[in-house]
Design brief:
Blueprint lengths: L3 H6 L2 H17 L4 H133 L5 H17 L1
Helix pairs in contact: 3-4
């Protein structure tokens, strides 16, 4: 292409000489203008048909794929953000669960301590109750033993009195002496 300033500054006669020079050059290469124009039209027609039926659908397909890729990248970014949020929530949930676990363990320890103390107190009470019952049983046994010992002692006194007096006592006299001796021993 010729520079527009060059065309303005050149002489119109120089331009005509340039056109003649092109005609001469075309004549030297045996250029036939009607065939050249037909080829230019054929080329333009093929270029239009290729653009219309080949390149345009391909460009549309490429544009759709670029949109899908862009949507896919956008979706991937959203998923990364959601994953990050989910990880944050998971960490928060795990932290809360750890705190709850700690609280539950502390509560369980406290309850077990209280239960152990309560059981110990109950065991002490039961032991005191058993000791009290045992003391009561010992007192009753002691009273029974004293009663039995008094009765035996009374019988020994009667038997001794019988031997000392060398007299046989009847069962009624023996019972009367036993009662009297038992009363005397009980008073002492």
């Amino acid at each position: 292409m010729l520079d527009p300033l060059l065309l303005i500054t050149t002489n119109p006669g120089d331009i005509a000489e340039g056109a003649n020079a092109i005609s001469k050059l075309a004549g030297q290469f045996d250029v036939e203008w009607n065939l050249l124009i037909a080829q230019i039209i054929n080329f333009a027609l093929v270029a239009f048909l290729l653009y219309r039926f080949a390149f345009k659908p391909i460009l549309l397909t490429l544009e759709e794929r670029q949109k899908k890729i862009a949507e896919g990248l956008h979706y991937a970014e959203e998923m990364r953000a959601k994953l990050k949020d989910a990880e944050t929530q998971c960490a928060e949930i795990l932290h809360k669960a750890a705190l709850e676990k700690k609280e539950l363990l502390e509560t369980a320890r406290e309850q077990s301590k209280n239960y152990a103390e309560k059981q110990a107190q109950e065991a002490v009470l039961k032991a005191e109750h058993i000791i009290k019952k045992a003391e009561e049983a010992i007192i009753l046994e002691k009273q029974k033993m004293l009663h039995d010992a008094r009765n035996e002692l009374a019988e020994l006194v009667v038997i001794t009195s019988e031997k000392v007096l060398s007299k046989h006592l009847t069962n009624e006299e023996r019972a009367a002496y036993n009662e009297t001796a038992t009363k005397e021993l009980a008073i002492n």
